[in-house]
Amino acid sequence: MISDLKTVKLSVSLKNTRALVLFEKETKNYRVIDCNRKSFCRIYVSRNCPPYCEIIVAVKDFVLKRRKPKAEVVEL
Ligand SMILES: [Zn+2]
Q: Which tens digit of pLDDT belongs to each residue from 34-65?
């Protein structure tokens, strides 16, 4: 479950992909609200993107400040 506490809402753009992701800093849980490539990640099966999805990798890079994200990430 994603709580409102310490949850950031992020807009992610990468090449032709645009996504809207909620990320909870403490638990590192995320939920993809919308992504125009959701069929690629089979979001309709798992209801979320897998951890290796480029969007999720970029979100984690941005929020956890691991390295410079490859995608453009904007906190909303
Ligand atoms: Zn994805």
A: 888 877 776 655 678 888 899 999 999 999 99
Q: How far is the CA of 4 from the centre of ligand 1 (A)?
A: 22
Q: Is 70 exceeded by the pLDDT of residue 2?
A: no
Instruction: Please give the full DSSP string across 27-58, using - where no structure is assigned.
Output: TTEEEEEEETTTTTTTHHHHSS--TTSHHHHH
Alpha carbon of residue 59 to chain centroid: 5
Cα of 24 vs its chain's centroid, Å? 10
For residue 14, pLDDT over 60 is answered with yes
The CA distance from 50 to 60, in Å, is 12
- CA 53 to ligand 1 centroid distance, Å: 5
